[in-house]
Design a protein that fits this description.
Blueprint lengths: L1 E12 L5 H4 L3 E11 L15 H14 L5 H12 L5 E10 L9 E8 L8
Antiparallel strand pairs: 1-2, 2-3, 3-4
């Protein structure tokens, strides 16, 4: 099995249920790990490799596209994006708000799922 990952993609997001969270964007971290189908991805063949830019740029656009009340909703949207790539077999994504509490480094949500278990996977 092969994995591709992003660690602590740092973005400004409109996220949160509370009124004060709706008034200003806040810093979030996104961590992503995708398991890839080895059969579809031969080693060192750029034409048949997963495009890192597609996932990163897609996540950035998702975060910029709208307000998310819940981190869980953002994480679900990222899972959906990942499964648009046929070579992705499984996804683990976490989101973390870094400014939610003054005495907590981060508070977040995580989804781990496979293509076969994700109800919206193509």
């Amino acid at each position: 099995m092969r994995k591709l990952f992003f660690r602590n993609l740092r973005l400004m997001a409109s996220i949160g249920f509370y009124q004060h969270e709706r008034l200003r964007r806040q810093t979030i971290h996104i961590n992503l790990e995708v398991e890839l189908d080895d059969i579809r991805l031969p080693a060192d063949d750029v034409q048949h490799s997963l495009d890192y830019d597609y996932l990163r740029d897609g996540i950035v656009e998702l975060v910029k596209s709208r307000h998310f009340n819940l981190q869980e909703a953002l994480a679900e949207s990222i899972v959906d994006l990942c499964f648009t790539c046929p070579e992705v077999n499984a996804v683990c994504v976490s989101t973390a708000k870094l400014e939610a509490y003054p005495d907590v480094e981060a508070v977040g949500a995580e989804i781990r799922t496979s293509r076969q278990d994700w109800p919206k996977a193509p």
